């Protein structure tokens, strides 16, 4: 019971103290190993049919961050953060279904019969979805993993800010990203040079309804 309480308190501290930080210590560098540890925690996030459509571009080369600066509308964190992690969503992630479920079978999580059913159903369903629907799924799953990455970073003492303000066309051109991948967001990662400002939240009763919708019409 004591251990459970401590874990609960630590998690509450992480989610309550996370801030969107825009000023970073440019001299602070996070190692490749540490970034990989964060990403390994992030990829435990859930995804539609476990297709794991997320892909990452870790941008920690200073000259490349300088090229990213105007694409990110000159937001200074683009160059001062230790790294910018671009989160992409694969709209054709269902093409990896055999690899994913073969591994699940090999590790004893599912039987060969269940694997065959899941592979066939997943392929047939997703391949028939409209491009817009597959894009929406990739964006939802990309949002899930982005939040998990930011919380994992805060738990290790680092700071982040999600960046939706950038030119996706120019970003795609810079990194030669194929059309099947949709940019979800950029995440600045580093050590804060100034704390993110506290923000307020709407009261729970204003955003939560029980058993019926009661919001503004």
From TrEMBL:
PANTHER family named among the record's database cross-references: NAD(P)H NITROREDUCTASE YDGI-RELATED, NAD(P)H NITROREDUCTASE YODC-RELATED
Named from the GO MF annotations, one term is: oxidoreductase activity
Q: Which residues form the Nitroreductase domain?
A: 15-191
**For this UniProt entry, which segments traverse the membrane?**
none
Which keywords are on file for this protein?
Oxidoreductase
Query: What is the recorded name of this protein?
Result: Nitroreductase family protein
- Tree of life domain: Bacteria
- Species per Swiss-Prot/TrEMBL record: Paenibacillus agri
- A Pfam family annotated for this chain is Nitroreductase
- Asked if the record carries the keyword Phosphoprotein, the reply is no
> Per the similarity annotation, which family is this?
Belongs to the nitroreductase family.
């Amino acid at each position: 019971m004591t251990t459970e309480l401590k874990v609960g308190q630590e998690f509450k501290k992480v989610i309550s103290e996370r801030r969107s930080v825009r000023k970073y210590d440019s001299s602070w560098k996070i190692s490749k190993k540490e970034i990989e540890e964060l990403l390994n925690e992030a990829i435990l996030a859930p995804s539609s049919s476990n297709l794991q459509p997320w892909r990452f571009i870790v941008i920690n080369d200073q000259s490349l961050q300088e090229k990213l600066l105007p694409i990110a509308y000159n937001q200074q964190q683009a160059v001062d953060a230790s790294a910018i992690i671009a989160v992409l969503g694969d709209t054709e992630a269902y093409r990896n279904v055999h690899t994913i479920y073969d591994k699940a079978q090999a590790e004893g999580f599912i039987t060969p019969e269940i694997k065959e059913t899941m592979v066939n159903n997943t392929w047939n369903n997703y391949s028939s979805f409209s491009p817009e629907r597959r894009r929406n799924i990739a964006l939802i799953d990309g949002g899930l993993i982005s939040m998990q990455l930011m919380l994992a970073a805060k738990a290790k003492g680092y700071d982040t800010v999600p960046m939706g303000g950038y030119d996706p066309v120019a970003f795609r051109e810079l990194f030669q990203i194929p059309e099947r991948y949709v940019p979800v967001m950029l995440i600045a990662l580093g050590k804060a040079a100034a704390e993110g400002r506290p923000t307020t939240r709407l009261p729970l009763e204003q955003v939560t309804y029980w058993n019926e919708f009661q919001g503004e019409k």
